[in-house]
């Protein structure tokens, strides 16, 4: 695990956007794993501004809320169109998110894993971290070998994500379809970005603590090619 600390949020975001743009330029047919959340909004702004082409890229998002269709403004499918896909030259047919409205969620999860495999696996997976220590929506006690599946969200996560639902945690869905920790660890390269003091404690546990299912991001210590980019506030307890 390579930990890179930048003085400000802006410089941490700029570095992550530059790394992604570099990979896309070096390999235009990149299979890119994407993440959501507020931290990523600035990464997507910087990627759009970079002018890098996504014309031959394929993307797979980490997760989607169960029960929210792509037209719901709270869905991650909507988030991705609004924040990135509608502003770059990507072919919408090459963008993928788990189907949170599928009647058979087990099948939808298996289909998602198959699609990733058929695309040749993920070259670069972008990650944020939740205050519960989750990557994707792999809440505490997710197995390190877990695959894409239906996961119940913790009260901490629903509170943390309430800002995107008008501030009311009760409006945040209770479940999500998420890539598993094992799915994420199979990506050839991992790039985690965390900014701000609210993430400092969980970042320290993920980076320096024991590898434990209680902090699923700690599993990233097992990956041979993982960069963790932090601003000084998020790195304060390292
Ligand atoms: C959601 C996503 C995670 C992301 C987290 C961080 O929970 N499912 O993949 O890491 O948000 O959110 P933020 O960047 O808003 O702190």
From TrEMBL:
Pathway involvement of the protein, from the record: Amino-sugar metabolism; N-acetylneuraminate degradation; D-fructose 6-phosphate from N-acetylneuraminate: step 5/5
Catalytic activity annotation: alpha-D-glucosamine 6-phosphate + H2O = beta-D-fructose 6-phosphate + NH4(+)
Molecular function terms, GO-annotated: glucosamine-6-phosphate deaminase activity
Keywords from the named record: Allosteric enzyme, Carbohydrate metabolism, Hydrolase
The UniProt record lists the keyword Cell wall biogenesis/degradation: no
UniProt enzyme class: hydrolase
Annotated family: Belongs to the glucosamine/galactosamine-6-phosphate isomerase family. NagB subfamily.
This protein's name: Glucosamine-6-phosphate deaminase
The species this protein was found in: Chelativorans intermedius
């Amino acid at each position: 695990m390579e930990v890179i600390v930048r003085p400000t949020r802006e410089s941490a975001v700029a570095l992550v956007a530059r790394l992604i743009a570099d990979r896309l330029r070096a390999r235009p047919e990149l299979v890119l794993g994407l993440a959501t959340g507020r931290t990523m909004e600035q990464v997507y702004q910087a990627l759009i501004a970079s002018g890098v082409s996504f014309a031959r890229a394929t993307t797979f998002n980490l997760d989607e809320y169960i029960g929210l269709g792509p037209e719901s403004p709270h869905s991650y499918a909507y988030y991705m169109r609004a924040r990135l896909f509608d502003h770059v030259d990507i072919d919408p047919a090459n963008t993928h998110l788990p189907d949170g409205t599928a009647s058979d969620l087990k099948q939808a999860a298996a289909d998602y894993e198959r699609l990733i495999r058929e695309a040749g696996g993920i070259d670069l997976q972008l990650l944020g971290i939740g205050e519960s220590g989750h990557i994707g929506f792999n809440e505490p006690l997710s197995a390190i070998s877990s695959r894409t599946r239906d996961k119940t969200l913790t009260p901490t996560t629903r509170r943390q994500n309430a800002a995107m639902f008008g501030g009311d945690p009760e409006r945040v869905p209770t479940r999500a379809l998420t890539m598993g920790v094992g799915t994420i660890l199979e990506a050839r390269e991992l790039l985690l970005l965390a900014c701000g003091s609210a993430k400092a404690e969980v970042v320290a546990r993920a980076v320096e603590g024991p590898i434990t299912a209680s902090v699923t991001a700690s599993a990233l210590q097992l990956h041979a090619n993982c960069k963790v980019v932090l601003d000084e506030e998020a790195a304060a307890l390292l």
